[in-house]
């Protein structure tokens, strides 16, 4: 198949590999971008092992918290200009309050919007005509603990509880709730920065583990060493992989000399009782959404021709 220059550029942006290497990778994988990334990694060419998610949608992430509970929502708009609109920000804040009561995306969408007889979904649809831009409630979730705290963190907040990246972290403990909340907020800041894929090694998607093992194996075999040595090399790289992607095993952002797990153990002295991180949620605006891009110069040229 014919590989376009745009495909080569996209792969180069994802991996940092040379143009010719990117073209070769795409040719070898019939244009499959993910397979091409793996191909470069196996060859030791890729400079970036982690493919950046395409964050294209605009809008805001909103959080709200109560007693031992917190909720997070994402409401999208077409432009960042609208996201900075006070009316839009009020909508997101109120949807977050609804999420604190109802939790799941489906329940929040159908629930009544505060001060209205209409649902959250219908209220947002009505606001499209007022604000003048397409909007939509995308998702929500909630964390609760029977004892302890659920902390919230919004990175680069544009208003109280509103921003482009939000995190919730739940800690169960019978100790001091204020101390637990303070540490949970530090962990939330860590999650915002490090973006772990799972809380523990057991929770990592098996398919992801198998993919990484296959890549590590191919890389190790290029060394020409015996299978027994290769197996040890793969085990070592897999341990390193877990240290990079598992929250409890990651180096704590606020003190890289200890893991998050060790930092939690140390925090128990202040909390005054054993503590356990039971869950976390991280919402980055627009993650997983691809936004259609247009060539503005081409559009202008086409308009002139008409």
In short:
Among the domains are: 1-52, Helicase, Ruva Protein, domain 3 (Orthogonal Bundle), CATH 1.10.8; 58-192 and 280-284, Elongation factor Ts, dimerisation domain (Tetrahydropterin Synthase, Chain A, 2-Layer Sandwich). Helix content is 47%, strand content 21%.
Provide the fold topology.
Layout: H1 5-15, H2 19-28, H3 33-42, E1 58-66, E2 69-77, H4 80-83, H5 86-102, H6 105-110, H7 120-131, E3 135-144, E4 148-155, E5 162-163, E6 165-173, H8 177-194, H9 206-221, H10 227-245, E7 251-252, E8 255-259, H11 260-271, E9 275-284, H12 296-305
Antiparallel strand pairs: 1-2, 1-5, 2-3, 4-6, 6-9, 7-8
Helix pairs in contact: 1-2, 1-3, 2-3, 5-7, 8-11, 9-10
Main β-sheet, spatial strand arrangement: 3-2-1-5
Distance between the termini: 33 Å
Helix/strand order: HHHEEHHHHEEEEHHHEEHEH
In DSSP terms (H or I, runs of 4 or more residues), the helix count works out at 12
**Biggest beta sheet summary:** 4 strands, antiparallel
């Amino acid at each position: 198949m014919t590989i376009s220059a745009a495909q080569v550029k996209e792969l180069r942006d994802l991996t940092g590999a040379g143009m010719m290497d990117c073209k070769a990778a795409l040719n070898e994988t019939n244009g499959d971008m993910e397979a091409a990334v793996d191909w470069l990694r196996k060859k030791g060419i890729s400079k970036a092992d982690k493919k950046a998610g395409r964050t294209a949608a605009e809008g805001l992430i909103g959080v709200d918290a109560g007693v031992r509970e917190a909720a997070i929502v994402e409401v999208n708009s077409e432009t960042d200009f609208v996201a900075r609109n006070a009316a839009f920000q009020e909508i997101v804040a109120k949807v977050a309050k609804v999420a604190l009561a109802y939790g799941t995306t489906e329940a929040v969408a159908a629930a009544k919007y505060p001060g209205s007889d209409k649902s959250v979904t219908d209220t947002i649809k009505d606001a499209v005509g007022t604000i003048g831009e397409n909007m939509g409630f995308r998702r929500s979730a909630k964390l609760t603990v029977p004892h302890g705290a659920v902390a919230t963190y919004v990175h680069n907040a544009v208003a109280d509880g509103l921003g482009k990246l939000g995190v919730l972290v739940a800690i169960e403990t019978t100790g001091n709730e204020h101390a637990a909340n303070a540490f949970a907020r530090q962990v939330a800041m860590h999650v915002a920065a490090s973006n772990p894929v799972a809380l523990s090694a057991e929770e990592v998607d098996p398919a992801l583990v198998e993919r990484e093992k296959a890549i590590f194996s191919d890389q190790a075999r290029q060394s020409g060493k015996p299978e027994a040595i290769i197996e040890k090399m793969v085990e070592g790289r897999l341990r390193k992989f877990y240290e990079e992607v598992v929250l409890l095993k990651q180096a704590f952002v606020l003190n890289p000399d200890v893991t998050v797990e060790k930092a939690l153990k140390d925090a128990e002295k202040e909390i005054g009782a054993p503590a356990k991180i039971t869950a976390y949620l991280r919402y980055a605006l627009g993650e997983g959404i691809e936004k259609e891009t247009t060539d503005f110069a081409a559009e202008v040229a086409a308009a002139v021709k008409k």
